[in-house]
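Entry:
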Amino acid sequence: MCGYIEVDGERQQPVMQFPEREISRRFFSKVFKGYYPAFGQDANKTIDIVIEENGTLKQVAATWWFDCVDSIEGLRVGTRTTFNARNLDSPYWRGALHNNRAIVLATGIGESKIVGKTKHQYYMQSDEVFILGALYRKFSEGRYSCAVITRDAHPKMEPYHDKAFPTFLPNNDPFLKLWLSKSVQQHLAIDNELNHATLYPSLKVQRVKTYKDKVPYKSFEPVILTSDLINN
């Protein structure tokens, strides 16, 4: 995943009819937000994540770059590129995967692919809220850093990004409570989601000049990536 996540408050309504989506209702922002990773070593580039702390779910702002170091002035961003968590078998991620799982609520993401010698950027938007899996670290003074979990490329996503696939999670409270629980290190349901990438939302794909302005290329006909749930 290429480093853009969006929250569009106007798209919150479709999830509200589902009683099993209380977590989405509670933590989804009504304010439009666009998130970028902390490139340029800017620890102020944060993303809203939901975690469990002291037995309670809470939403915190976390620097979108896992590799950070605490200091008197605040977090300092490391040089290792860690806005995504890819190789979960690595000891680097193992502790957070077992003890510090988080979620990100979003309505859109940005992906890109090199076509020939040109970088094509694609803005992907859903009609409703979706959930992305993440890992986090906690530092002093209530500061956090995080990474979004990615897995192998998904067949539907490969025409637009063929290196990795963001880990979409089912938007239902029983699973999300299990995922966020600090008392659950491993579980069959969690392993299943990590090992079987699923496109839970349907996404409208538009090639754009930038994620910020979203000016579309007229030569690109928008494409709908249908949810895997529709095919089952």
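The longest helix spans residues 91-99.
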